[in-house]
Amino acid sequence: MATDSPESSDTNASTKVGALQSFAHGALGLAEPNAHDTFCESKSSHQDSSQGYFKAGQLLKAAATVGSVIALFV
Fold this sequence. Notes:
- The protein has 74 residues and is mostly helical.
- Helices cover 76% and strands 0% of the residues.
- The mean pLDDT is 76.
């Protein structure tokens, strides 16, 4: 039972890093990162979720850009 816990935390950590990495790439205007996830058997569901984080990062970047343009005029 003690050996199962670190393995599950490793897979959860890699998923969180992938989501954070996708969000950061979107927010910084970088290209969308490729999913090199060996733990996940269904790559399409992982790509869909990381693409959602990437789109959220792009929306954050757009909102910050619009906000800074408005702040220049005020």
